[in-house]
């Protein structure tokens, strides 16, 4: 398989140089502990697939449209997967970069040969950013792809680790997130890394430690992905049960008659987001999120393909 990396076996952790315990984090977590996760599929009624993910106070909602015929091949340059992400105003300059990184992390897991001359569009909105925003967006997009019935080899989970207070810590918060960190997008059932990002100068041993920490974290995130809202998720997975074999784990896609029909576009994307905020957030949280995006105008052009415009 192209564009994947097989990580080395996890090695025993080495103590930090200063002898400190890696448990001394501001929120009380140990160095290899992930923040609390919450996940749900099918949160936006008008999309082919959608999902909502929380990594601590980092909150992301994602919608997937397609597969469908390419509407503008020149603009998308013939790419079968397109990703757009809207970030809080303090991170807006990274939107284009994050969109490209999301696509690179997800595309190796998607069986693009199953929909030739068609395209899958992924749109994510980071409602609140408190660290590891890209990891949460990749994980959320993977769940939305499952919800949309897009054929995949395996679900993709993403985790990040960074150097903080002289130690490598998993799932850094905004306060812990420094210029030295590693992000891993991982297919746990396959044991393959679809994308690896390193920022800042880290020694070889520190990079290997971060990768090992991230792959273990991704396995835990995948477990949470599989255990969320059992009745809701089981109904979706029943259409494409995972078939485990000795050499690989492939998704067999068995859909009910008529399941491939495009859902009716009954609400605009902006209206769907408003309904979502009212259902999943307290009034105070909704007001805070709306203030963050008060300058963002989300326009629906009637083609099930929302565009975020400033």
UniProtKB/TrEMBL annotation:
GO biological process: nuclear mRNA surveillance; poly(A)-dependent snoRNA 3'-end processing; rRNA catabolic process; rRNA processing; U4 snRNA 3'-end processing
A Pfam family: RNase_PH_C
UniProt keyword annotation of Transmembrane present: no
GO MF, one example: RNA binding
Chief place of localization: cytoplasm
Ranges of residues in domain Exoribonuclease phosphorolytic: 33-151, 154-213
Alphabetically ordered keywords of this record: Cytoplasm, Exosome, Nucleus, RNA-binding, rRNA processing
Record's subcellular location: Cytoplasm; Nucleus
Biased composition (Basic and acidic residues): 14-30
Residues annotated as signal peptide: none
Keyword rRNA processing included in the entry's annotation: yes
Annotated Gene Ontology cellular component terms: cytoplasmic exosome (RNase complex); nuclear exosome (RNase complex); nucleolus
Region feature Disordered, mapped onto this chain: 1-30
UniProt record similarity statement: Belongs to the RNase PH family.
PANTHER family, A to Z: EXOSOME COMPLEX COMPONENT (PTHR11953), EXOSOME COMPLEX COMPONENT MTR3 (PTHR11953:SF2)
Protein's recorded name: Uncharacterized protein
């Amino acid at each position: 398989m192209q564009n994947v990396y097989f990580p080395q076996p996890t090695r025993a952790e080495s103590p930090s140089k200063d002898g400190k315990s890696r448990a001394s984090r501001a929120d009380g977590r140990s160095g290899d502990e992930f923040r609390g996760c919450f996940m749900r599929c099918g949160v936006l009624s008008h999309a082919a697939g959608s999902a909502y993910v929380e990594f601590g106070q980092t909150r992301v909602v994602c919608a997937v449209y397609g597969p469908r015929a390419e509407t503008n091949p020149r603009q998308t340059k013939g790419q079968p997967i397109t990703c757009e992400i809207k970030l809080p105003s303090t991170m807006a300059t990274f939107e284009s970069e994050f969109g490209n990184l999301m696509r690179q992390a997800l595309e190796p897991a998607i069986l693009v040969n199953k929909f030739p001359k068609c395209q899958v569009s992924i749109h994510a909105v980071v409602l609140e950013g408190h660290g590891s925003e890209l990891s949460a967006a990749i994980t959320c997009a993977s769940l939305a792809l499952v919800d949309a019935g897009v054929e995949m080899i395996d679900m993709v989970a993403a985790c990040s680790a960074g150097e903080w207070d002289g130690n490598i810590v998993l799932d850094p918060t905004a306060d812990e997130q420094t210029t030295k960190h590693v992000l891993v997008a991982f297919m746990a059932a396959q044991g393959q890394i679809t994308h690896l990002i390193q920022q800042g100068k880290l020694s070889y041993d520190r990079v290997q430690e971060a990768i090992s920490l991230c792959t273990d974290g991704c396995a835990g995130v995948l477990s949470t992905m599989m255990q969320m809202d059992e009745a809701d998720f089981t109904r979706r997975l029943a259409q494409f049960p995972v078939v485990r074999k000795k050499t690989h784990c492939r998704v067999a896609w068995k859909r009910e008659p008529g399941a491939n029909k495009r859902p009716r576009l009954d609400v605009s994307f902006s209206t769907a987001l408003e309904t979502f905020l009212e259902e999943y957030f307290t009034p105070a949280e909704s007001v805070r999120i709306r203030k963050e995006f008060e300058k963002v105008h989300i326009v629906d052009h009637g083609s099930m393909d929302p565009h975020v415009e400033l």
